[in-house]
TrEMBL record, chain A:
Residues 1-23 are annotated as: Disordered. Its EC number is 1.-.-.-. GO terms for molecular function: oxidoreductase activity. Belongs to the acyl-CoA dehydrogenase family. Its cofactor is FAD. Residues 27-134 form the Acyl-CoA dehydrogenase/oxidase N-terminal domain. The keyword Oxidoreductase applies. This is Acyl-CoA dehydrogenase family protein. Residues 260-392 form the Acyl-CoA dehydrogenase/oxidase C-terminal domain. It is an enzyme of class 1 (oxidoreductase).
TrEMBL record, chain B:
Coiled coil: none annotated. The keyword Oxidoreductase applies. GO terms for molecular function: oxidoreductase activity. Residues 231-371 form the Acyl-CoA dehydrogenase/oxidase C-terminal domain. Pfam families: Acyl-CoA_dh_1 (PF00441), Acyl-CoA_dh_M (PF02770), Acyl-CoA_dh_N (PF02771). Belongs to the acyl-CoA dehydrogenase family. Keywords: FAD, Flavoprotein, Oxidoreductase. Residues 17-111 form the Acyl-CoA dehydrogenase/oxidase N-terminal domain. Its cofactor is FAD. This is Acyl-CoA dehydrogenase family protein. Its EC number is 1.-.-.-.
Length: 395, 407
């Protein structure tokens, strides 16, 4: 049996009609375009460029490649909250956390720092092509929680006359690496300051290899080897040695909010599957839906989904307020969503898991990938001190 | 929109009530000064429109005020909010302004208080065990009398009025609902009350009503189908959820303060990652609960029963508050288990919210039903024995020893 996606398949009108919001539209799109090949792509660890191109150009409606790029630069001009909804819908429809992560990294984590700190030249060069899906932007998920992990790349001034910088080091966990046109790389200077660079794939001295973690198989993963890679002054994003105050905290907030977003959709899908599974089974000659342990587990599961949704959406909508970004609120939201994803995955798998031997394997994927979610963005070891520091006035 | 509690720096609401909270708890009585402060603050009027004598605050303002009062003193909050919000809403919803304005207005002005009597000495979760009945008085002026016992009722020992759930003694040809709400004047012969000592919320009057043919005017008996009543009850679930959030917030604030002040191993506790983890987890969970609570209150105030949402909130927020107050006790060490310490009070108060107004698991049953799993089905537990899982296996050598049932 392949689990049907009732809401996705039987109500195309609601999905494409004018009244549908970004969440419904991207859910429908992803259900139609991505979901049929999700299990296969996961098994083969493959990335389908044609699929991404289709998601990027889907008309009318969600611009999945560049929702947060201003319309004047060819993007979707969406709000932060709408961007969140798009990723929720993408993951819910595709039932593919890896694909949604790749899109989140490209469309938000690699994009927004350019929008926020790019020079007019950088914005005009990169953003329209990123928004159209022509250029894929990538970065290492080790560089999205400030300098909590010692920077693995160093920057030193290029020899006099040449100008610019030489970057040396190795980065792993680079989401999008095999297909990326360019990378955001934070590099440390000898004095300890850090600078963000835009490094094009064609940069001499940069080697991109494939390989990634034991999770999120449908995201294209790779490593960057920088061996004195030369970048010019125009590739500095923000100010020299300014990363700690500019791009790093921004990347942290973006990771905590937008890499969590797909999990709202995944959790909803899991909750629906679990409900379906409970309905079809019997134990002790009674329907499983009479069993209180099952009933209570489903009630708690639905509650976790509701709580996570509320908290993360509230945080995203505060990004639209225009003021300083609430770093500790974003950290708290990630802490909560990662925990909820873990609880929901375990509870749902209790009903739909390995014993069931049916379905499209979402429970198994989610088990593996929820663990990934809880270990990235710095994991609890980074998130808790960030939240606690603001409560305690320390740090 | 502010999803965080009022900050420490902003003037605390209900400063007098807050300053007396420990003494109020120790004495197990709400002092008159608390009621004066409540009346002056306009708290009791917030929940009702002007035509009913209220001030018609919006949902967010209601939330802020409820949380502030519950943080100041949870026992006082329970008593005041059960009367003005819960009983007031029940009267306004199921009664009518024309007939019952004279009952409602004194609750909002603070001249009188009310209680909501549903539960009886039998299983509180199971309405089929309730026996309290309303029947025609047979007196010349008409009206009804009510007989039965309500137990574990907030405000029962002190209230002037009881919004009472009762069965209707239906005469022949009466096709109306089996249940009614009776607005019973408690200042009359035929009403006895008792107090029940309790673990937390000690200042909250709590106990029973014994109604021995107490008189109820005809207009004050409102027949209500049982199902319709449950929408009114969600106000109770909300009220308790906000109490839980406030208690958890107070315990968390105390924990932060203590962690900053207490020095151990040469540094404040605040520098310990283990303490930070407890604080951060509490912060994240409480934020999530508060976002849900605000949304639930907005939906409820706009007229939707929001049953499922408020049910989820009640289960989560009340159990979370137990967890957070437990962490607070741990962070405070022996202070946390010392009688009279703020955190010891919060720990006791938090337990009350899990049980009051539908215990958690009973509510989970309802949530499951709301998810489409059908109503709860109760059967005697007799399905294990036929499976063979009530018998000790024979020895590893097999043999013919008679099979023994597990004792
Ligand atoms: C602080 C406080 C204030 C209160 N104020 C009022 C008030 O103002 N008015 C009023 O009428 N009552 C009031 N009550 C009583 C309260 O409503 C009842 O205590 C509550 O409904 C539970 O009933 P019970 O205590 O008899 O427990 P029981 O019904 O005996 O339940 C005991 C346990 O069994 C579980 N259980 C019961 N049924 C089920 C089920 N179907 N599925 C799974 N688990 C189940 C419950 O969750 C609970 O854990 C108050 C109680 C408290 C603690």
């Amino acid at each position: 049996m392949v689990l049907a996606q009732p809401e996705l398949r039987t109500d195309p009108e609601a999905a494409t009609g004018l009244g549908a919001g970004p969440l419904e539209r991207s859910r429908e799109l992803a259900g139609r375009l991505a979901w049929p090949t999700t299990a296969e792509r996961d098994r083969d660890r493959s990335w389908d460029p044609a699929l991404f191109a289709e998601l990027a150009r889907a008309e009318p409606g969600p611009s999945l490649a560049g929702p947060l790029v201003p319309a004047s630069l060819g993007g979707g001009g969406s709000t932060a909250a709408e961007g969140l909804a798009l990723l929720e819908g993408l993951a819910e429809g595709s039932r593919d956390p890896g694909l949604a992560l790749a899109v989140a990294v490209h469309a938000v984590l690699a994009t927004v720092p350019l929008r926020a700190h790019g020079t007019p030249r950088q914005r005009e060069r990169y953003l329209p092509r990123m928004a159209s899906g022509e250029w894929f932007g990538a970065l290492s998920l080790r560089q999205t929680h400030g300098g909590a992990v010692a920077p693995a790349v160093t920057a030193r001034p290029a020899p006099a006359g040449q100008g610019g910088w030489l970057l040396t080091g190795r980065l792993d966990l680079v989401a999008g690496a095999p297909v990326a046109h360019h990378f955001l790389v934070v590099a440390a200077h000898q004095g300890g300051g850090r600078t963000t660079f835009l490094v094009d794939r064609a940069t001499p001295g940069l080697l991109v290899t494939e390989g990634g973690p034991a999770a999120m198989h449908t995201c294209p993963w790779g490593h960057l080897l920088l061996d004195g890679a030369h970048v010019d002054d125009g590739s500095v994003l923000g100010t020299v040695e300014g990363a700690a105050a500019e791009v790093e905290p921004l990347l942290a907030v973006l990771d905590w909010v937008y890499c969590s977003a797909p999990w709202l959709g995944v959790m909803r899908a899991l909750a629906r599957d679990a409900l379906e599974a409970a309905r079809g089974r019997e134990l002790f000659g009674r329907p499983l839906t009479h069993d209180q342990a099952t009933r209570f587990a489903l009630a708690d599961l639905a509650t976790q989904v509701e709580l996570a949704e509320g908290l993360l959406r509230r945080t995203a909508s505060r990004l639209d307020d225009g003021g300083a970004l609430p770093l500790q609120d974003a950290a708290a939201a990630r802490l909560f969503v990662a925990d909820a994803a873990d609880r929901v995955t375990r509870a749902a798998a209790g009903l739909t898991g390995p014993l069931a031997g049916t379905g499209d394997g979402l429970a198994e994927r989610a088990h593996r990938d929820a663990l990934f979610l809880s270990r990235t963005g710095g994991g609890a070891q980074v998130l808790r001190p960030v939240v606690a520091a603001s409560m305690l006035g320390l740090g | 929109m502010n999803d965080r509690p009022r900050s420490e720096e902003s003037t605390p609401a209900f400063p007098g009530i807050a300053s007396r909270a420990a003494a109020t708890d120790a004495e197990g009585r709400i002092p008159a000064a608390n009621w004066d402060e409540l009346i002056d603050s306009g708290y009791l009027r917030l929940f009702h429109p002007a035509e009913a004598g209220g001030s018609g605050a919006d949902a967010d303002a209601q939330f802020d005020a409820m949380e502030a009062l519950a943080r100041a003193c949870s026992g006082t909050y329970w008593s005041a909010t059960v009367s003005a919000l819960l009983c007031g809403s029940l009267i306004a919803t199921y009664g009518s302004l024309r007939d019952h304005e004279q009952l409602l207005r004194p609750l909002l002005s603070g001249e009188r208080t009310a209680c909501f009597g549903i539960v009886e000495p039998t299983a509180g979760s199971d309405a089929s065990t309730y026996r309290t009945t309303v029947r025609p008085s047979g007196r010349p002026g008409g009206g009804y009398v009510i007989r039965g016992e309500k137990s574990r009722i907030t405000n029962a020992p002190t209230a002037d009025l009881s919004v009472t759930l009762a069965r209707r003694d239906k005469g022949p040809g009466d096709n109306g609902p089996d249940w009614c709400l009776a607005f019973v004047n408690l200042r009359q012969p035929g009403v006895q009350r008792y107090e029940t000592p309790h673990m937390g919320l000690r200042a909250m009057p709590w106990g029973g009503l014994v109604l021995s043919d107490a008189y109820v005017p005809e207009a004050d008996v409102v027949p209500v189908p049982f199902q319709a009543l449950s929408d009114g009850m969600t106000w109770g679930w909300l009220l308790v959820s906000i109490a839980a959030i406030a208690t958890a917030e107070a315990a968390l604030t105390a924990s932060v303060r203590h962690a900053q002040a207490r020095v151990s191993f040469g540094r404040a506790l605040a520098h310990m990652e283990g303490v930070q983890a407890q604080l951060a987890d509490s912060r994240a969970q409480l934020d999530a609960a508060r976002v849900l609570a605000r949304r639930a209150l907005r939906e409820r105030a706009s007229g939707s029963p929001a049953r499922q949402l408020i049910g989820m909130l009640k289960v989560y927020a009340t159990e979370l508050a137990v967890e957070i107050t437990q962490r607070a006790v741990q962070i405070h060490g022996a202070f946390g288990v010392t009688q009279g310490h703020e955190v010891e009070r919060h720990y006791r108060d938090a337990q009350m919210n899990v049980i009051g107004a539908f215990a958690s698991n009973r509510l989970r049953e309802q949530l499951a039903e709301g998810l489409g799993l059908g109503p709860a089905v109760y059967q005697p537990f007799d399905w294990l024995a036929p499976t063979g899982l009530r018998h000790h296996p024979v020895s590893l050598d097999g043999g013919t020893r008679a099979v023994q049932a597990v004792a």
